[in-house]
Amino acid sequence: MSALVNHSVKTIAENIRNTRIRLAYSQEYLAAKLNVSQNTYSKIELGYVKLTLERFFKICRVLEIDPAEVINADGVAA
C-alpha cells in the first residue's frame, strides 16, 4: 500500500510540474502565488514535501486545472 501511495504522490507532483511547464509558468511565479519559497515549491514538484489538500487545491486554481485531472491524468500536459 505504501508503494502505491508513493507512486500516486509522485504522479500528482509530476502532473503539476508538467502543467506548469505547459503554461510557461516559472516555479517562482507559483511559489509567489502560494506564498512559499521557490525552494519549497520545487520540493512540492519533486514530491519531497507533503502536499496538503488546501495547497493542492490552490495549485489547481493557479494552474486553472480541475483537481481530478491532476489526480487521474498521466502527464496532464498533453
Main attributes of the structure:
78 residues; mainly alpha; 5 helices; DNA-binding
Would you mind describing this structure in some detail?
With 78 residues, the protein is mainly α. The chain has one domain (2-71): lambda repressor-like DNA-binding domains (434 Repressor (Amino-terminal Domain)), CATH 1.10.260.40. The chain contains 5 helices and no strands. Helix 2 packs across helix 3 (38-46). The chain is globular, with a radius of gyration of 12 Å.
Which class in CATH terms? Mainly Alpha
Please indicate the count of domains: 1
The CATH topology annotation reads as: 434 Repressor (Amino-terminal Domain)
Rg on CA atoms, Å: 12 Å
Range of helix content: over 70%
Tell me the number of strands.
0
Q: Give the terminus-to-terminus CA distance.
A: 29 Å
* Strand content bin: under 5%
What is the H/E order? HHHHH
Q: Could you say which structural class the secondary elements and strand pairing correspond to?
A: mainly alpha
Q: What is the CATH superfamily label?
A: lambda repressor-like DNA-binding domains
Biggest sheet features: none
Indicate the CATH architecture: Orthogonal Bundle
What is the general shape? globular
Poorly predicted spans: none
Global mean pLDDT? 87
Number of helices: 5
Keywords: DNA-binding
Organism: Mucilaginibacter ginsenosidivorax
Protein name: Helix-turn-helix transcriptional regulator
Pfam family, one: HTH_3
Topology, element by element:
Elements: H1 2-22, H2 27-34, H3 38-46, H4 53-63, H5 67-72
Helix pairs in contact: 2-3
